[in-house]
Design goal:
The structure is a single chain. With 489 residues, the chain is α+β, with helices and mostly antiparallel strands. It is built from 17 helices and 11 strands. It has a 5-stranded mixed β-sheet. A 4-stranded antiparallel β-sheet has the order 3-8-9-10, with no helix packed on it. A hairpin with a 7-residue loop joins β9 (455-461) and β10. α7 packs parallel to α10 (234-245). The longest helix has 21 residues, at 121-141. Bound molecules: zinc ion. Zinc ion is lined by residues 344-346, 392, 413-414.
Length: 489
């Protein structure tokens, strides 16, 4: 066990799920249980409630924005493309571009997370409404597909026929279409995960089947050419579909979304990242570590540990963020690239996901040291706490200023991941040790309602303004467990 965690025995004295599906203690909702040794388990998001702090303020601001958004407007082209009459006018920005539809997936995830984190039924109602609407679209199409991407039917037909053209962000003229499919699948899986919406899982499974059908005839060359185009976390959602269903065909399908060019290099310990688009790579690695949890695949573990170490130690700024104009540069040479377009926010959103998985396997303080640094300096700092608007880039240029999104005319990738960022601050504050101990990873004012043990842990702190942290434990019955408090580096 890590010596950076102060371990003490607690004397007798006085739940939904963490985003990105880090294993939880005795989680019976997953048919496939981890084969890897999980040493620290995430708590269900519903068991953690935030108390007053800048994080709580950010969460409130995000929630207000989420409630102003009209689901029917995000759904407009999903309905139109399925031959149904839209019930609202589509939004501007990237929602009127080739990436149309990606926001709905993030929005579904964010509403599901916010429901788990607060119990506010207004968000549950939105989740259920959107799932019903997507069901209508999927039913009307009859193929299993759901989408709002311009010209999508002809693009997918060309891909299925093995006619594949890409220069990295385009696939047969469409803007990273698998990226958007991933967001829809992730939103549906989150609706199942955090709101127990069984229909959402059914829809996600049909979309996974459509995916398998679409690429079933592609040979390896065609497949690798297709994967040259950014494909988001397709492989992660397929691994999670496998976890939910126990059907190995989804595990095999996740392996087809394996970009050899990048991942084989990482598995061999080669830093192939300079010059590569940063956020295109991170979700591929999250998929690898999630698959390793379920299969014990050693190559997947090597990919993830080498990538994390390389990015956090050689390609990250002091804030924990990475990328300049979205790209990785040469290792250990970041002082020349302090510009207005440093540290895309999606990248840190994804790095935090990856960090949670690695911590579950090996609960060392260094993971949460990184997590804390990136959470405070990048994620929390990426939002205007009054309007809830967010930054695409957090600029590190001297005298640089933050450019916040517009509520109705941006809908960039970082607006989408930003919807999730600020409603899931409760997901990593505490972890449950395999031995029944409690990890206190982050010093964010909150209450943990530890149902399993009938305990309530209240954490009060004004860190970093004041250096004191108070933990109050309330127990229904005497309990003995180790309390592991991270000693910040
Ligand atoms: Zn982004």
């Amino acid at each position: 066990m890590n010596k950076s965690f102060i371990t003490s025995l607690l004397f007798c004295c006085t739940g939904a799920f963490g985003q990105s599906y880090v294993p939880e203690w005795k989680d019976v909702t997953m048919k496939v249980q981890p084969q890897a040794n999980i040493h620290a388990y995430a708590f269900p998001l519903e068991e953690v409630r935030l108390l007053e702090s800048p994080f709580y303020t950010a969460m409130q601001a995000e929630a207000q924005y989420l409630l102003k958004i009209g689901p029917d407007r995000l759904l407009a082209d999903f309905r139109a493309h399925a031959g149904l009459a839209p019930k609202g006018e589509k939004y501007g920005g990237w929602e009127s571009s080739g990436l149309a539809g990606h926001t709905l997936g993030h929005y579904l995830s964010a509403c599901a997370l916010q429901y788990a984190a607060t119990g506010d039924v207004a968000f549950l109602q939105r989740v259920n409404y959107i799932v019903d609407e997507l069901e209508a679209c999927q039913h009307a199409r009859k193929t299993g597909y759901i989408g709002a991407i311009p010209n999508e039917d002809s693009v997918w037909a060309q891909v299925a026929a093995g006619n594949i053209r890409t220069r990295g962000f385009d696939l047969n003229g469409a803007w990273a279409p698998w990226y958007t499919v991933h967001k829809i699948m992730a939103g549906l899986l989150d609706a199942k995960r955090y709101c127990n919406n069984a229909k959402a899982l059914t829809l996600a499974i049909k979309l996974a089947d459509w995916t398998g059908n679409t690429i079933k005839d592609l040979n390896d060359d065609q497949l690798q050419r297709m994967l040259f185009c950014e494909y988001g976390g397709m492989s992660e959602t397929l691994v999670n579909t496998y976890a939910y269903t126990g059907h190995s065909k989804y595990l095999e399908l996740s392996r087809r979304f394996y970009d050899k060019r990048i991942l084989d290099s990482l598995a061999a310990g080669i830093d192939i990242l300079p010059g590569k688009h940063a956020n295109t790579q991170i979700p591929k690695v999250i998929a690898a570590i999630r698959r390793h949890e379920l299969t014990l695949d050693a190559r997947d573990a090597r990919i993830a540990t080498f990538f994390w170490q390389t990015v956090t130690q050689h390609h990250s700024y002091a804030t924990g963020g990475n990328s300049n104009y979205e790209y990785f540069g040469p290792a250990d040479q970041l002082n020349e690239t302090l510009t207005d377009n440093t540290t895309e926010t999606c990248n840190t959103y994804n790095m935090l996901k990856l960090t949670r998985h690695l911590f579950a396997l090996q609960p060392e303080a260094r993971y949460m040291d990184y997590y804390e640094k990136a959470l405070y300096n990048h994620i929390l700092a990426s939002q205007d706490h009054e309007s809830g608007m967010v930054c695409y880039f957090v600029p590190l240029r001297m005298g640089g200023t933050k450019a916040y999104s517009d509520p109705w005319h941006s809908f960039t990738c970082c607006v989408g991941s930003g919807m999730e960022n600020h409603v899931k601050y409760g997901e990593s504050i505490y972890f449950r040790g395999r031995d029944g101990s409690l990890y206190v990873n982050l010093f964010i004012p909150s209450v943990l309602h530890w149902k399993e043990k009938g305990l309530q842990i209240r954490q009060e702190s004004a860190l970093p303004a004041a250096g004191t942290i108070r933990l109050t434990v309330t127990a229904k019955r005497p309990e003995t467990f180790a309390l592991r408090i991270r000693h910040p580096r």
